[in-house]
Design a protein that fits this description.
heterodimer; A: 124 residues; alpha/beta; Transcription Regulator spoIIAA; 5-stranded mixed beta sheet; 4 helices; 31% strand; B: 660 residues; alpha+beta; Beta-Lactamase; Helicase, Ruva Protein, domain 3; 7-stranded antiparallel beta sheet; 12 helices; 23 strands; 41% helix; 22% strand; rod-shaped
Chain lengths: 124, 660
């Protein structure tokens, strides 16, 4: 099984990384390279779209954690969206969902982002 | 490419084609040459035959004409009354002597008409040459003989030559005859009537004899080539001159010329122009060209014909000989061409052969062999150069490959050593089977590669069996290093006698520090009470263990917290459950449940639970081996997907389980 990665802009300052196929020890380095290239200190929002991801192994998890760490360190947002049940279960087993912004679908995520923006506006 | 038995050299193939096309061209040229030269020669021969016929006729006519003139003039002179017998005899002698062709002459007078013939016997003096050898006639040596035809025993007036001429009233040529009295030679005679001045009164006959042998001379001159010849036939088709003397005086049909084209022949009898045609010719065994020309002497009474015969075979033989000569030259030329082409192509393709042999050398692994120097900067020369470049590149590539292979081998040997070290870090070296008084333990670690990120550990003290099973994210060397760190930390926890939850907390804190690579370990850490069978267990993001007892197999939930290494300061709660007699606690890593088969299906927990359901009352080692073989059967030809680790603890009920 192979991995397909599509990167599109998310809003004005964000990146959406859609991954499809199998994220395992053979393909994790692909995602790693994409993360290294696309995510840096100035990235404010990274959305990882799991819609077409069929398989996730611990090697893949490591890359996801690493991306999250980069985003956490520079104060950006790291969101996971469209987790299929078997993918969600992988996160659940290692009890890694705590502290992660996980959304079942796009609507939930949009709601969350809208709320965030409102909060920022109110704060102004 | 090695030399196959069907190998055919370019040189011979090329030469063969060139020579073949050359031969075809030669054949076309040769056959058209044959046809053209034959046509040319035929028309030449026809002309030659005609001309020979004409010229022969002319020669014959000249002679006959002069002989006839002699007799005519004699006849005219004799008719004048004042010519004495003496005069006549003198004139006869002079005519015979001075006329080369005339053999003999006579003047036979009718008695009582002219004054010279007053006697009853008439007057008929005959003078003829005595020397029969016509070929060596000389005027001086030619003696003359005299015969008096007016003698009573001859009676010239009753002879046909006299009678016929008298009856005809004009000059006549006799048919050829054998002169029995005069010298036994074939002769013809010209007889012309002598008339008085009134032109009507018959006064006698003047004759001139010609021997036919002089015709042979003309026939000799009309010979054409080796087999062509001429002949003369008389008006009634008797051969009077022929190269073959035995045919003299024989009918025409004895010559072997068939009268296939008889109509043409007949036509030639009445025509003064020459007839030319080809007809079957028995003599030469094939076709002949025949030219026939009828004599047209002024008296129009001889009807002799000159026939020129040229067998075709002669000409065809000549053309054939010519063709054979040309063909021989052509074949020699083609042979030379063949050799030259072979030589040139050999020379041109020799570098190719050398290149081919060099290629075989290189194929056999010899990259140092000498390469032929490029002869010229043509296509072959540039191929030679390219080949050399390729060989150099190949040499470099092989050198690089050897270096890479050496490096690879070194790395592999290092990894093998690393594998041994890794296995020595865990009890039992990766495959342990323990049978104690109150429990059985089976532990197996099988990395997907030489080294892996899975781990297990156990340690028994007075009261407890301490154990851990873990799975580092990813596999290979990075995972193995992280695993080593985790195992080291676990042994430290054992020394500090920490509870499972405390152990994981301590390990997590240390593993999380400066973990920029975000490596993490999922782990189940536990403590088994040898007496009571109680298990205290903490879970760091690992799959729940399976508990198997007489009721079957089921998952034993152990609620825990995040995997080790992702964030610090996490509490891992201890969960307690109990192993009763003959029940087992099976712990595993995802290398088992996520094993794939060729259809890309996963082994999954359901299969594992179903298998364990069927493994009741079986000891720990057997259970472990069954799981492993079931998984590898499932995976089939697919290589092991991930590190596999299995840790099984079975509580012994001493009353039912016998030591194995």
């Amino acid at each position: 099984m192979s991995l397909e990665i599509v990167v599109t802009p998310e809003g004005s300052v964000g990146k959406r990384i859609a991954i499809a196929g199998s994220l395992d020890s053979n393909t994790a380095s692909q995602l790693q390279q994409t993360v290294d290239k696309e995510i840096n200190d100035s990235t404010e929002l990274t959305v990882l779209d799991f819609k077409d991801l069929d398989f996730l192994s611990s090697a893949g998890l490591r890359v996801i954690f690493k991306a999250k760490k980069i985003m956490d360190n520079n104060g950006g947002k790291f969101l996971l969206v469209n987790l299929q049940p078997q993918i969600k279960k992988v996160f659940e087993i290692i009890k890694a969902l705590d502290g992660m912004n996980v959304f079942r679908n796009q609507d939930e995520m949009d709601e969350y982002l809208a709320a965030m923006q409102n909060r920022v506006k109110e704060g102004e | 490419m090695d030399s196959t038995p069907k190998k055919q050299s370019l040189a011979s193939r090329l030469s063969l084609w060139i020579v073949l096309s050359g031969a075809i061209i030669f054949l076309i040229v040769l056959s058209s040459n044959y046809i053209l030269s034959r046509k040319l020669l035929e028309s030449y021969v026809e002309q030659l035959a005609r001309e020979t016929a004409f010229s022969s006729v002319q020669k014959v006519e000249t002679v006959l004409h002069s002989v006839a003139t002699s007799a005519d003039s004699l006849a005219a002179v004799v008719a004048t009354p004042d010519i004495s017998q003496q005069h006549i005899m003198q004139m006869l002698q002079a005519f015979v002597t001075h006329n080369e062709q005339i053999f003999g002459m006579t003047v036979a007078l009718e008695p009582g008409v002219l004054p010279q013939a007053t006697s009853q016997n008439g007057f008929a003096p005959y003078y003829y040459k005595t020397n029969n050898d016509t070929a060596n006639r000389h005027r001086e040596s030619a003696g003359l003989a005299y015969a008096d035809l007016a003698s009573p025993d001859y009676d010239y007036r009753s002879k046909p030559w006299y009678q016929d001429t008298r009856r005809a009233g004009h000059a006549l040529w006799s048919e050829p005859y054998m002169d029995e009295g005069g010298g036994n030679v074939h002769m013809v005679t010209y007889s012309t009537p002598i008339t008085l001045d009134d032109g009507r009164t018959f006064a006698g006959v003047a004759t001139a004899d010609i021997r036919l042998s002089w015709l042979d001379e003309i026939i000799q001159h009309s010979q054409i080539g080796q087999t062509g010849y001429g002949m003369i036939v008389s008006g009634n088709d008797t051969i009077i001159a022929h190269p073959d003397k035995t045919l003299h005086m024989k009918p025409l049909n004895r010559t072997g010329i068939s009268n296939e084209n008889w109509e043409r022949y007949l036509h030639s009898k009445t025509s003064a122009s020459a007839e030319y045609f080809s007809t079957a010719c028995k003599l030469a065994g094939g076709q002949c060209w025949v030219a026939i020309k009828t004599l047209s002497n002024s008296n129009n009474s001889s009807h002799w014909k000159i026939i020129i015969v040229i067998p075709q075979q002669m000409l065809i033989a000549k053309i054939r000989m010519l063709t054979v000569k040309i063909a021989a030259i052509a074949i020699a030329g083609l042979a030379v061409l063949f050799l030259v082409v072979i030589m040139i192509t050999r020379r041109q393709t020799r570098p190719l052969a050398e290149l081919a042999s060099a290629t075989r050398d290189i194929g056999a692994g010899n990259l140092e062999g000498k390469l032929p120097a490029p002869p010229r900067m043509d296509e072959i020369g540039s191929l030679s150069n390219d080949f050399n470049t390729m060989r150099e590149a190949l040499k470099q590539y092989i050198a690089d490959l050897q270096e890479t292979t050496a490096r690879q081998q070194k790395l592999e040997s290092e990894i093998r050593i690393a594998h041994d070290i890794q296995m020595s870090m865990i009890p039992g070296g990766g495959n342990a089977s323990i049978d104690e008084k109150s429990y059985q333990l089976f532990a197996l670690l099988r990395p997907a590669r030489s080294v892996g990120g899975d781990l297990y550990y156990y340690h028994q003290d007075d009261r407890h069996l301490h154990f851990i099973i873990g799975d580092v994210s990813d596999k290979g060397v990075p995972a193995a290093l992280f695993m080593a760190k985790a195992v080291t930390l676990y042994t430290r926890a054992l020394k500090e006698r920490l509870l499972p939850g405390e152990t994981l907390g301590m390990m997590n804190d240390i593993l999380s520090q400066d973990n920029d690579a975000c490596m993490f370990v999922t782990a189940l850490c536990g403590r088994y009470d040898l007496e009571s069978g109680e298990i205290l267990m903490a879970n760091a993001g690992h799959m729940d263990p399976i508990l198997q007892n007489t009721d079957g197999a089921r998952e034993q939930p152990v609620n825990g917290a995040t995997a080790l290494g992702l964030m610090e300061n996490i509490d891992y709660p201890d969960v307690s459950f109990k192993l009763t007699g003959d029940s087992m606690c099976i712990m595993y890593t995802d290398g088992i449940t996520e094993a794939h088969n060729s259809l890309d299906e996963q082994y999954g927990e359901e299969r594992l639970l179903a298998l364990l359901d069927n493994c009741r009352s079986v000891d720990a080692a057997q259970t472990g081996n069954r799981i492993i073989s079931d998984v590898s059967n499932f995976a089939g030809s697919r290589e092991q997907f991930d590190d596999i680790t299995l840790l099984i603890i079975r509580r012994k009920d001493n009353e039912t389980v016998k030591p194995s």
